[in-house]
Specification:
alpha+beta, SH3 type barrels
Length: 364
């Protein structure tokens, strides 16, 4: 190739080198597309998150790497064919470094965004908080990438870092409430005291389903179909009852009273039969729950006890309790078991009282 007569070819060495590099770039890009497409179709059937994200993250970085490789090939051909390219050598080297840094930053960014997005989509608690985590990760990656790029270009980054520190302090002081809500949102996402879809009760008394955990606030949809918007900083410091943690199922106590003349063993057996049948037949009852009865009070007009049922979710407990009360009342009537009315007795003879006679002395 050193004996090529470029005058006979009617083309300059520089132009030929450029054509060779363009052809090489096209072939490499085509090969990259074929290989990644084939790998993507194979990995898509496995169902693994990391493999799919890795293939998608390689697209742009590999294109930049191919450009760097062909720039180096162009530099080699210039030298091999005796093209005077001294004035281009330094820009070519600098451009190659910049492209490699951009390729690395793009790969890490796309990989992190894909991993966060993939796992957030599979987690109900992280789905609506995906943007928070992706924003933090992208900001950190791009920040480090810019500093590395400035260092490659020969720009001193120490004054830049110092200036960023002062600026960040001023911004942090100015945006203190916003940043407090932001980091409280991050804390809610990481600690997971509540998750999207959970039914919670705030210390102020509001109850509802968690609809969204955002950058600044958390949205709670209440049962009357309105929404409470709580700042994350307030929510993170509040006492919260999470009725869906560790699981949505919960016990449903029902208070019952029967007459003093009742056979308590028979009452208990009938009550358990009704409770088990309701849990079995009702769509929101937990069939396998071992329900029980506990007697606890000699009341003024009845002997009181508690029946423990179990519902699949907090909101379903009302319907399970209602169905049980109706079924128990019907069964008690069939069995002749009396649920007494509240009774208050008046003892007119106690302590010498005289009903119907005035205690005032007679007038003269």
């Amino acid at each position: 190739m050193t004996n090529i007569d470029f005058s006979e070819l009617g083309i300059s060495p520089a132009a030929l080198a450029v054509c060779v590099c363009l052809l090489s770039t096209g072939l490499m890009l085509l090969l990259k597309r074929l290989i990644l497409g084939r790998l993507s179709s194979v990995i898509h059937r496995t169902g693994y998150v990391f493999d799919s994200v890795l293939i998608r993250a390689l697209g742009l970085p590999l294109t930049l790497v191919i450009l760097v490789v062909n720039i180096q090939i162009l530099k080699f051909l210039f030298t091999y064919w005796g093209v005077d390219a001294q004035s281009y050598s330094q820009p070519i080297a600098l451009g190659s470094k910049i492209l490699l840094i951009l390729a690395l930053v793009a790969f890490i960014d796309r990989l992190c965004m894909g991993m966060i997005g993939g796992y957030a989509d599979r987690s109900e608690g992280l789905r609506n908080s995906k943007s928070i985590m992706q924003g933090i990760a992208r900001g950190a990656i791009l920040g480090v990438g810019v500093l590395v790029l400035l260092g490659t270009l020969g720009i001193a980054i120490t004054p830049v870092i110092a200036s960023l520190g002062i600026t960040s302090l001023a911004v942090a002081l100015a945006l203190q409430p916003t940043l407090e809500n932001f980091f409280s949102g991050v804390q809610l996402v990481m600690d997971k005291p509540i998750r999207v879809g959970d039914f919670i009760e705030l210390d102020s008394g509001e109850q509802g389903f968690v609809e969204k955990i955002g950058w600044r606030s958390t949205w709670i949809k209440m049962l009357p179909n309105n929404v409470v918007i709580m700042p994350n900083s307030v929510l993170s410091e509040s006492k919260i009852i999470n009725y869906y943690y560790p699981e949505p199922e919960l016990s449903v106590p029902v208070e019952v009273g029967v007459h003093y003349d009742s056979d308590l063993e028979r009452v208990e057996q009938i009550t358990l039969d009704v409770a088990r049948q309701v849990l079995k037949d009702h769509e929101w009852g937990v069939t396998e729950y071992n329900t029980f009865v506990v007697y606890h009070t000699f009341d003024s007009s009845s002997i009181n006890f508690t029946v423990m049922l179990r519902a699949k979710e907090y909101f379903n407990r009302f319907w399970v309790k209602s169905a049980f009360i109706k079924a128990l009342h019907r069964r008690y009537r069939e069995e002749g078991i009396v649920i007494p009315y509240p009774i208050r007795a008046l003892n007119t003879d106690q302590e010498g009282a005289r009903f119907g006679h005035s205690s005032e002395p007679a007038a003269d």
